[in-house]
Amino acid sequence: MKKLIALLLSLALGLQLAACGAAPASGGSAPASEPASAAADGTVQAEGMLWPVTPLPEKTKLTVSYLANSTAEAVTYLAQQKGWLEACNLEVEMVYFAGGPAQMEASTSWDVGTSGIGGMITGLLNYDIRCLGVVSLDRGLYQAFFARKDSPIVQAGTGHSAVDGVYGTAETWKGAKVLTATGTANQYTLYHTLKSFGLNLSDVEVVNMDVATIPTAFLAGEGDVGGIQGLTIQDPVFQGEDSEYVMVSSDQLLQCGLPVNYVATARALEEKQQAVELWLELAMMAGEYANANQEEAAAMMVDMYAMDGYETKEEDNLVMIQDNPFISVADNYAYFTEKSENGTMLEAEAQIYEAMQGYVEMGNYTADQLDALITGETFLPGPVTQTYEHAQQ
C-alpha cells in the first residue's frame, strides 16, 4: 500500500505540472565547467563533445518541447547539463506535454522538439511540422498493458495469441474496458495486441485518457486493462514481487515499437534556421554520447525526470537506454538519404508511412491522409546531412 501511495503522489505531482498541457521543465543551470575556447577556424569543442561545432554568432533562444516520461528528453537535457548549448550560444527552455497530439496543438508555442508517432502524424498532417531526424525506435518495453491478477484475461494465461507471451483469449478480451491514449503509440500497441487474437478496436471499450493520467486511474480501480508507458512500467507497484497486476501485452512482445523523431515548426525553420540545425546537431551528438556513457546518462536522467515530477532509479534508466538506444548520426544519415525497399520513399518516411497504415486500419486516419503524408516536403534531409558531414571531419 505504501508503494501504491508513493506512486500515486508521484503521478499526481506530474499531472499538476502538466495540468495546462505543458509546463517549463528541466531548465536548471548547467554545471560549472571550463569555458570552451574557439579554435582557429571558429569552432568550439567543449568537454565531452564528440566533434568540433561552429557556435551561433550571438545568443539565441529555442523553446524545446518533449513528451513527459520519455527518454527522448535526455538528448537536449544532456547537452544542456554538459555545457554544450552554452558553449555554442544556444539557450533553451524545455516544456513537456502529456501526449503527442496535445504537443502539436500547441505548436505555436515552441520551436523544436521530440515526438512519438501520434504527435508526428498529427503534426505533419495538420500543423506545418517538419521531421528532422530519428531519436530512437523505442522497441524495448516502452508501451505495455496491465490487468489485475483476478482478471479473466490473466486467468486465461498465455498461449492463445498469435504472439507468445500475450495473455488472454479472444473471448476474455472482448468487451474489456481498456484505458489508453488514442492516436498514440500506446493505442497502436493495443491495436496489435487485439490483432494477435483476430480482434480489432471495436471489440473492446476504449477509454481515452492522457498517458500520464492512466496509471492513477487504473490503480484507483478504473478499467479492466491499463495502458502504461515508459519508466512507470518498471515501478514495483506494477512489476514488484507483491504486485497485484500482470503485464498482459507490450510493444516488446509484439515487436511493434515506433520511431520517436526530432521535429521543428516551419516558423522556427524560417526564423531561426541556424539555431534549429545547431540544436539538432548537439542533440544527436548527445544521443551518441549517452549510448557510449550509459551509466553517466542514466544518473543524469534521475534529476531530469525529477524536474518533471517522476521519481526514477539509475538502474531503470539504464535499462531504458540499453533497450532503446539513441539513433546515431550515421544511421540518421542513412534514413534520410537512402530509399526504402520499394524505392518510393526515404527510409525515414517509410518508418512513419508503415506505422500510419496501422492507424488507417484503426480508423484514426484515411487512406488519402496516408498518401498525403509523404507528398509534401515534410522530411528534411539537409540538417541531418550537414551534421553527418561535420561529424566526419
Q: In which range does the helix fraction lie?
A: 40-55%
Question: Reading side by side through the largest sheet, how are the strands ordered?
Answer: 1-3-2-4-11-5
Mean pLDDT: 87
Number of helices: 19
Quote the beta fraction: 15-25%
Which regions are unreliable across 5 or more consecutive residues at pLDDT < 50? 1-21, 26-34
What is the radius of gyration?
21 Å
Kindly report the CATH topology of the largest domain. D-Maltodextrin-Binding Protein, domain 2
Question: What best-fitting shape do the alpha-carbon axes yield?
Answer: globular
CATH superfamily name of the largest domain? Periplasmic binding protein-like II
Largest sheet: 6 strands, mixed
Describe this entry's structure for a reader.
The longest helix has 20 residues. The chain is of the alpha/beta class and 393 residues long. α2 crosses α14, α13 packs across α14 and α14 crosses α15. The radius of gyration is 21 Å and the shape is globular. α8 links the parallel β7 and β8. It folds into two domains: 257 residues, D-Maltodextrin-Binding Protein, domain 2; 112 residues, D-Maltodextrin-Binding Protein, domain 2, CATH 3.40.190.
